[in-house]
Write a structure and sequence with these properties.
With about 170 residues, the protein is α+β, with helices and mostly antiparallel strands. It has four helices and seven strands. It has helices spanning about 15-30, 40-50, 100-115, 130-140, and strands spanning about 5, 50-60, 60-70, 85-95, 120-125, 145-150, 155-165. Strand 4, helix 3 and strand 5 (about 120-125) form a beta-alpha-beta unit. Helix 1 (about 15-30) packs across helix 2 (about 40-50).
């Protein structure tokens, strides 16, 4: 049985980084220099600070992760600084487990966190060449709301966002 939980101090940053490398290898092979393709464990730790890192494990092995981030005060992606907008990053599922629903579970958990935290929208970005991801996110209710050119990246990113249902 798969269980989503918050990343814990006892979890291995090195293992989390290895998961990211495995999951982003396909994108790296497409010539896309996502940070997660080759980031160090130090960068992984820095990128989860300030957000809520959720993971899925099968036994001791991490097989999925997502970081839900509150609205940024400043960011290269202007959309991520809009009031009421939370963002997700470092969204990854081990290639051996892709297509099994782990990604949907992680994204639903991030949406739940965002709603519970008072956000009205959840945004993300991905390279415009990653059409398989853009199509997946569109099926899950995310709409294209803009573009961002991240410093040092060889691709332009599509910014996608989903309005979150309110209980009112």
């Amino acid at each position: 049985m798969l269980h989503i939980r918050q990343f814990q101090e006892s979890d291995s940053i090195t293992e989390l980084t290895s998961l990211l490398h495995r999951a982003y290898a396909r994108l790296g092979n497409m010539g896309l220099n996502y940070t997660a393709v080759s980031q160090t464990p130090e960068v992984t730790a820095k990128r989860i600070r300030g957000g809520n890192c959720f993971v899925v494990a099968t036994g001791p092995k991490l097989v999925g992760t997502i970081v839900a981030q509150p609205t940024y005060a400043e960011n290269e992606c202007e959309y991520f600084t809009r009031p009421g907008v939370a963002a997700v990053h470092q969204f990854a599922v081990d290639p051996e487990h892709q297509g099994s629903g782990i990604g949907r579970m992680l994204l639903q958990r991030a949406e739940q966190w965002a709603k519970e935290s008072g956000f009205v929208e959840l945004a993300m970005d991905t390279a415009e060449q990653a059409t398989h991801l853009i199509e997946l996110y569109a099926r899950l209710g995310y709409q294209h709301v803009g573009w961002v050119q991240w410093h040092g990246k060889v691709y332009r990113s599509v910014v996608l966002s989903k309005r979150l249902a309110t209980n009112a």
